[in-house]
Amino acid sequence: xxxxxxxxxxxxxISLGLPDSLLGVAWPVMQSDYGAPLETAGLxxxxxxxxxxxxxxxxxxxxKRFGTGNITFVSCLMTAGALLGFHxxxxxxxxxxxxxxxxxxxxxxxxxxxxxxxxxxxxxxxSWLHCFWGVGATFGPIIMxxxxxxxxxxxxxxxxxxxxxxxxxxxxxxxxxLWNRVKKNSNITLHEEPEDxxxxxxxxxxxxxxxxxxxxxxxxxxxxxxxxxVESTVGLxxxxxxxxxxxxxxxxxxxxxxxxxxxxxxxxxxxxxxTFKMSNRTLIRMGQTIALTGATLLFLPLHSTxxxxxxIMVGLGLAPIFPCMLHETPTRFGKKHSQTIMGYQMAxxxxxxxxxxxxxxxxASHSTIGIFPFCIVVFVAAMLLSSxxxxxxxxxxxxxxxxxxxxxxx
Length: 410
Hints:
It contains 17 helices and no strands. Helix 5 (about 70-90) runs antiparallel to helix 6 (about 90-120) and helix 11 runs parallel beside helix 13. By secondary structure, the chain is mainly alpha-helical. The relative contact order is 0.15. Belongs to the major facilitator superfamily. This is Fucose permease.
């Protein structure tokens, strides 16, 4: 029963990933149909992410009152309805209206499922969970590219994705009783204690400190900010960069962006196995290094083929970072504060998704989309720097903690 519940959670994350990559690959065609300026995509993206921030901040109370299963079902239903609205939207105003439930539908379920898996399962489950998000994010642009190339219709692409979402909604509806049965069955043990779940800062003094006052928390939040800034910016503006700078056809650009999401997906699937041999900290560092290398390939004035390699490398590099940082939260800061800090991390992550892509769109509309690769390099470098500073701080605190323990032992 618990295995089947995990499958349902994976399906829910597919539904979260499907809409995330659609706007970026469809926007070059949507922009011409509506006669809208380039930065309008940033406004739509900001509206979606803003709704996600609001619902994620309210997720604690909502999840306690209605339960994770019910919220997952309602969120998927809202997303399906919003995507159907995109199909029928006669103007940009209606796109903005539909973007609101699209964002609200993602926040609570994302925060709830992430916290559930981080608390109850080991690191490989978190990586595979986000791998299934990548499955949705990969197939989204593939489906959209198919409709754009064959039918010249982005609207039918949204209609098809909406149909898939409604199908997942029906599955979630019929499996709602499963959540309650698993919860009530005391003989079933869902949770596995996270490895090294007692954090470096888990001591009597820190237990009385507010989460944001714990050393290292702000550095972790900066890492989440720039991670989501990179991931969402590449997804939203990658296609426009390839079309306007590398002069690729829209359908080809959409397929290349889908390979970026495929890199995230495949990377997270592989990461799930690597977590048995490597620590979260090592995987985070490796991923950031690979992503920085891929971003550098995009930045250098090379043939467009290197851009494809760069997109894939950025995707592969980003793959382990987010799930490993989430799963590392109890280890970094202790179980007592992990739930609160997890909420802060998700809120800051969505803030990066909300403001960084529109900021790039605003600057690009007044200059050129050619600044895209430079911004990606800066974002990845900032994420790497903050993460390494946090690692240094954690290492120092760990050494001091071990010294204190050894001195009291004698």
